[in-house]
Write the structure tokens for this entry.
Amino acid sequence: MIELKNRFPQVDQKDRLSYGGDQGDHPRKLIRKYGCGVIGGADLLFYLCLYRTGCRRGLFAVQKEPRAELELYNQWVDRLSRKYLPVIPGFGMNGLVLAFGLNRYFRHNLIPMRARWCFSGRKLWKRVDAMLSDDLPVILSVGPNIPLFWGKHRLPLYKKAGEDVYIRAAQVRAHYVTVTGADGQWIQVSSWGKKYYISKKEYKEYVKKHSSYLVSNMVLLKPRKQRNGGYRKPYGPSKMKKKAGAEGAAGNREKGMP
């Protein structure tokens, strides 16, 4: 199995350590009910900040270890949901909004990464494997039923009970999970602060019969690079000052000033 190279973030919930964040432990009802997307975003950004070169900036930079107190983690989720990853009551968050919010966070914090939402199922598992090999968690959507959004069809989640033994433990629809490992038949995911497994075959069948790859897909994450291979630098304070100075000088010349 291809897995992340470092320990996935944990949240100290006093009675247990979670595997990633758990929306059910958030004090706001909106997050508890519809916040799986912002939880996926928080776990991804937390992981990048801990282990990725050039990403130790922004909201999570105060944290030095992959284990966070529940109160602090919920504060991060609040900040993300209010500024970058809005959760819509009764709906949640679609993949385009999720990718846009991540890119906005990257730009504001000068993090050299970019995200985009995928629409094709043809390269889905290859992209998942490529990101995991690059030590990047993958936000994956188990989309809603299409075209009948109120449909009751769900995708099973499994617990591992032994070597090649998987027991059905939950089922989901219209839900984001974070992929932390994958092999030929299964993907390992974080959901509700627990480790689960999803059958690739069952995921494909669910999307084809009951959903669509437009909404059941993944966030593709890549380093932001220039054509010469270096990182493209977003506007920082020094560059903004130079730009403002140049614009001021141009304005003075128009007014006949030196």
